[in-house]
Write a structure and sequence with these properties.
The complex is a heterodimer of chains A (772) and B (204). Chain A has 772 residues and is α+β, with helices and mostly antiparallel strands. Chain A has 17 helices and 27 strands. In chain A, a hairpin with a 2-residue loop joins strand 21 and strand 22. Chain A starts with 69 loop residues before the first helix and ends with a helix. Chain B is an alpha+beta fold and 204 residues long. Chain B folds into 2 domains: 110 residues, Beta-grasp domain (Ubiquitin-like (UB roll), Roll); 63 residues, DNA polymerase, domain 1 (Orthogonal Bundle), CATH 1.10.150.120. Chain B contains 7 helices and 5 strands. In chain B, strands 2-1-5-3-4 form a 5-stranded mixed sheet, sandwiched between helices. In chain B, helix 4 crosses helix 7. Chain B starts with 14 loop residues before the first helix and ends in a 7-residue tail after the last helix. The chains are: A alpha+beta (772), B alpha+beta (204). Chains A and B meet through helix 1 and helix 15 of A and helix 3, helix 4, helix 5, helix 6 and helix 7 of B.
């Protein structure tokens, strides 16, 4: 991961610590980027032999198999990184900058070292050492770490660390950064990023203007034009389990339990950062309390500091961040804004789009997003710039860029539809891309409109008397969601139990269950016979879990490994049955001749033939069993109280595809969760910064608002099966369009357009007042 | 104590307030049991260093030497290896720490361990029995009312507290009863379904 002081490479794409999640498909989205990390067999692998193809009928795939680790999670037995307790374990704590921009003059650890219970200290940002910049770039930037016998002692000791700062001017809001007299964000070392006159050289990175068609001609064809500015805000990931690690050394060998979305990337990161052979590092992530993209960092400071403290203290150290640190220093979804002039012909055909867009991903990180999102403007131009401010850097957050691009584009679309007096659904269908991978939106829009009762939607502005106004909105999504790496190892033992080892990790998406479902399906046995072993670098290499790539990356590997193991088992039992192994199939808990079920035996009896040495099978990802690109559509209905400005989402309908649905119950849960995440983005969440001091005003969970049970609408999820496409990930797409659908439902209810998120009661009242 | 039932999302006495008023509280509270008497003596007499604290957790005695500032959550997680309930926000907002103390759901992150002496503490580690999962736990598994699972122990305990008080809650009572808990993965619909489906919890 780049240091906060190093602006990341330009290009307008959301940056990500390796491995980089693909940026999704669809127009305006960046091309899916192959994951940086090697392994699996990658996109160059030859197509999978047909014998590995997903073959119906399925016994487990596509069914409602209960989450395998449900019982461990509901009983508290599941050990998350936060729950790892080791003998003699110490507790670590990080000292962070209270200033959004400052030069560290000195760090004095003397008092902290003498504090009760302190066993080790580490200066992370040492001004006497050139290894790391002595400039802190945001409130919460890491400076030092302490480890003590209790967490209370560690907290006390951290307060005793004396840091002398030379406070530097900071820019906290985008308008401050762009002002002619703005202090430079990258004062000391910033390269010339922008030569626009009047703008501090280091506060803006101007991307290349993208242009297609003939803008002037497009506007000439337009019967109506519109010029408006739309924007979305910064939110943070708020994984319920914070970032952190438990590090334990045995000589020069390190075992690290890390709350990470990429155990293998973290292993490499630790080895590089600590200058030890990667073969000395083992990373374990058995259970993770959410990640949402923020836990893809291979060398997160808290992990590195934890490892160094453990080494110095000669004892295991647990270092988990608190909620405030999470908000400040572990990533966020960058803001997005666009000033757009757009044109539409009288028949509702889009003609022209001219946009200047910007966003901030903090101190040095990009803030890219797809724009326009999905819909076709034949003549279009876009100029984008990343604006830097003194806050923590953004990290990929569930469908990076897409919720922002979706909100901005969909609100624009709704305004254009009203200008030409067209129904929003018909207007959208008219302007969909004629050719796009898996372009299913038209079908889903029609089907969804029917189920949702779209024909009952009134035109913009609920004419019903009284303060409660009702409205409906719709928005669409796309995402890449392909994966191309993953390896698996399978062992069948003589007692009939199957172990599947795969070095992937489960953020909470249901990966462990998916592993078992794929294996059980090949063997025709219940998932209870399968023991998935994941979340450990001792297992076969798999990629980081980001960008909805896990399911599509590991399912083919497991399928290939299990088919290979089954072939070996068939060879073992064929002689006993007196048939050719090639005629055998595994169904309904039996191995039997395909055309003569009486020539067969139970799974248990078949496995008894195995003997003392288990049968093993291995697999690596190959093309032909998975694909990329999803389509989805969501409808929302809201009630708005125009006296209080409070929005209540009444119901949401989601139609979403993800190729072959492997684990139906957990896939549905992903959609429920994506919708709620987007509802939070629309109505509640907001990283509020004080523009004068640069302090985050709500770095907690009571004033950083999140939906509770009473805020949840009725949600209907329709998974659109496309079994012929193979496995496609579903983590990102459902969280893209809900916010826009809600915003448009609010617009439909109250008759005025709110062009920025979040839709707080104050903002809705203000917008209503402006109309009046 | 940080009770959840009466003021969802709020609490009657915060950790900080407790520290400020501990002396007053102990002076005016009539000790009714030897354990409480010990507790009050501990609060009066010592600190900020370690003091003996005796808890009853899931029916078992847990003796600890901890600082008076240690919360119930941290005492169980860090000193008794009862890690089932989680720390999400550490200030009574997310509910992942929810335990049941003397029959009431509390935010264990905002309740001092020393304050729980003489009380019956239940956390998620003790909910299942040898005969199997508690009906609430079973319902969460059946309905897939969890994803990452980090909020789940808190939701389970809040649901148990709700149902022991009111075995047949209305949909609105379920929503209100669980409003003090946050699921970041967004599984609320299925949590609601799970809790609605639970039968056979006896009034506590």
């Amino acid at each position: 991961m780049a240091s906060p002081n190093e602006p990341q490479a330009p290009g307008g794409q959301a940056p990500a610590p390796a491995p980089q999640p693909p940026q999704g498909g669809g127009r305006g989205g960046q091309a899916p980027a192959p994951q940086a990390q090697g392994g699996g067999r990658g996109p160059q692998a030859p197509p999978a032999d047909p014998k590995y193809h997903w073959a119906p009928p399925h016994s487990s795939i596509g069914t409602h198999v209960k989450r395998l680790d449900g019982p461990d999670k509901v009983t508290g037995k599941a050990r998350y990184t936060f729950d790892i307790n080791r003998p003699g374990m110490l507790y670590g704590r990080i000292v962070r900058s209270p200033h959004p921009h400052a030069r560290i003059v000195s760090v004095d650890m003397t008092a902290a070292q003498k504090a009760p219970g302190v066993k080790a200290t580490h200066v992370w940002r040492d001004p006497t050492n050139t290894q790391r910049s002595s400039i802190v770039m945001f409130q919460g930037d890491e400076i030092a770490g302490v480890a003590a016998d209790t967490e209370e002692h560690a907290i006390d000791a951290a307060r005793l660390v004396k840091v002398e700062y030379e406070v530097l001017p900071a820019v906290i809001q985008v308008d401050q950064a762009l002002a002619g007299n703005a202090p430079p964000v990258f004062a000391a070392s910033g390269p010339a990023l922008d030569t626009t006159p009047g703008t501090p050289r280091s506060n803006v990175r101007q991307g290349q203007t993208q242009e297609t068609g003939d803008i002037a001609a497009g506007f000439k064809q337009a019967a109506q034009t519109l010029e408006q500015t739309y924007s979305t805000h910064v939110i943070t990931h708020v994984c319920l389990e914070s970032h952190g690690a438990v590090c334990e050394w045995d000589g020069d060998n390190l075992t690290a339990w890390v709350s990470t979305q990429g155990v293998f990337a973290t292993k490499e990161g630790l080895a590089t950062g600590l200058n030890i052979p990667s073969s000395n590092v083992r990373v374990i992530t058995q259970y993770m309390g959410g990640g949402f993209g923020s836990k893809l960092g291979a060398q997160d400071p808290q992990t590195m500091i934890c490892a160094r403290l453990a080494k110095d203290a000669k004892a295991p150290v647990k270092l988990m961040l608190d909620r405030k640190e999470e908000h400040l220093a572990t990533g966020n979804r960058p803001s997005a804004a666009a000033r757009i002039k757009a044109g539409v012909a009288a028949d509702g055909t889009l003609t022209a789009f001219d946009a200047e867009s910007w966003g901030t991903g903090g101190a040095g990180a990009a803030a890219g997003f797809p724009l326009p999102y999905i819909y076709v403007f034949p003549n279009r131009r876009r100029a984008h710039k990343d604006v830097f401010i003194n806050t923590g850097q953004q990290r990929p957050m569930r469908a990076p860029g897409h919720p922002q691009g979706s909100f901005i584009t969909e609100v624009l679309m709704e305004e254009l539809a009203d200008l030409v007096k067209m129904d929003p659904v018909e207007f959208r269908i008219k302007n969909l891309p004629p050719e796009a991978p898996n372009a299913m939106w038209g079908q889903y829009l029609r089907q969804g409109a029917k189920e949702f009762g779209w024909d009952k939607r009134h035109p913009t502005g609920d004419p019903t008397p009284g303060p409660i106004k009702t409205g409906m909105g719709v928005a669409i999504n796309t995402w890449g969601g392909g994966g191309n790496q993953g390896r698996a190892h399978v062992e069948i033992a003589s007692d009939g139990m199957v172990i599947v080892r795969c070095g992937t990790q489960d953020l909470g998406t249901g990966t462990r269950t998916l592993v078992a479902v794929v294996a059980a399906d090949t063997f025709g046995i219940p998932t209870t016979n399968i023991k998935p072993e994941i979340g450990d670098t001792m297992y076969p290499m798999s990629g980081g879990s980001g960008g909805s790539t896990t399911a599509a990356g590991i399912s083919p590997a497991i399928r290939i490994a299990t088919v290979n193991a089954l072939d070996a088992l068939k060879e073992k039992v064929a002689p006993a049955l007196g048939v050719d192994a090639a005629t055998l199939v595994a169904v309904n808990g039996r191995i039997q001749a395909k055309d003569n079920p009486s020539k067969g035996m139970s799974w248990a009896d078949a496995c008894k033939q195995i003997g003392a040495q288990p049968i093993a099978g291995d697999g690596a990802w190959q093309p032909g069993l998975s694909s990329a690109t999803t389509s989805g559509v969501q409808f929302a209905e809201v009630k708005v109280d125009i006296e209080t400005g409070i929005v209540k989402v009444v119901r949401v309908l989601a139609l979403q595809d993800c190729g072959l649905v492997v684990s139906r119950l957990t896939a549905e849960s992903q959609v429920y969760g994506g919708i709620v995440g987007s509802l939070n983005f629309a109505l509640f969440e907001d990283r509020i910064l004080d523009r004068n001091t640069g302090q985050m005003v709500n770095p907690n969970m009571e004033w950083y608002l999140l939906a509770g049970m009473s805020d949840i609408p009725k949600i209907d999820v329709r998974l659109m099966d496309q079994s012929e496409r193979g496995v496609v990930g579903i983590g990102e797409p459902p969280t893209v369009p809900t916010a826009a659908a809600i915003a448009l439902a609010v617009r439909n209810a109250i008759g005025v357009t709110v062009r920025s998120l979040p839709l707080t009661p104050a903002k809705i009242l203000q917008t209503l007042a402006q109309r009046a | 104590m940080a009770e959840k039932d009466d003021k969802p999302g709020g609490f009657s006495v915060s950790r900080r307030d407790f520290l400020k008023t501990a002396g007053v509280v102990s002076a005016v509270t009539a000790a009714t049991s030897p354990a409480e008497a010990d507790a009050q003596a501990a609060v009066n007499g010592v600190g900020p260093g370690n003091v003996p604290v005796r808890l009853t957790v899931n029916g078992k005695r847990v003796d600890l030497m901890i600082e008076p500032r240690v919360t119930l959550l941290d005492a169980l997680r860090m000193r008794a290896d009862l890690t089932g309930n989680k720390r999400g926000c550490d200030r009574g907002a997310c509910g992942a720490c929810t335990m049941i103390v003397d029959g009431r759901a509390v935010y264990a992150c905002s309740t001092l361990a020393i304050e729980c002496q003489g009380k019956e503490v239940r956390n998620v580690d003790g909910l299942a029995t040898a005969s199997g999962l508690h009906p609430v736990q079973q319902a969460f598994c059946d309905k897939d009312a969890l994803m990452c699972g980090f909020c789940t122990p808190g939701f389970v305990m809040a649901s148990v507290a709700l149902l022991e008080k009111n075995p047949s809650p209305t949909p609105d009572q379920i929503r209100k009863g669980l409003d003090g808990n946050i699921c970041r993965c967004g599984t609320f619909s299925r949590i609601f379904e799970a809790v609605s489906s639970v039968k056979g919890v006896t009034r506590g």
